[in-house]
Design brief:
Conserved Hypothetical Protein Mth637, Chain: A, 5 strands, single chain, 24% helix, five-stranded mixed sheet, alpha+beta
């Protein structure tokens, strides 16, 4: 269809530093990593599940499109976001700068 703008979806990997058992849930972009304060304790995967839900909500993704690919048992994690368009990614990262 002529004139139709096609949105290219991409996958994006980011480093995340997690602070579990915090007083509130927050995300902030710190230049080369995402800082996540989570109210969930680091027990039985509760903080990991909360991290996935918090990132998914912040980037308008389904939680199935967020995966912890490294650091499941660490405060330093690598997270993959799947099927995200570049415009949304840039806008959401700018929203999280602080």
């Amino acid at each position: 269809m002529p004139g139709k703008l096609e949105v290219k979806m991409m996958d994006f990997r980011m480093k995340v530093k997690v602070n579990p058992a915090a007083s509130q849930n927050t995300l902030a972009w710190r230049g080369d990593f995402l800082k996540a304060n989570l109210t969930a304790p680091p027990e039985e995967g509760a903080a990991n599940r909360q991290l996935i839900d918090l990132i998914a909500g912040s980037f308008d993704l389904d939680s199935n499109n967020v995966e912890i690919i490294r650091g499941q048992n660490s405060r330093d994690k690598t997270v993959m976001l799947y099927d995200l368009d570049r415009e949304t990614l840039v806008r959401k990262m700018n929203d999280l700068k602080g």
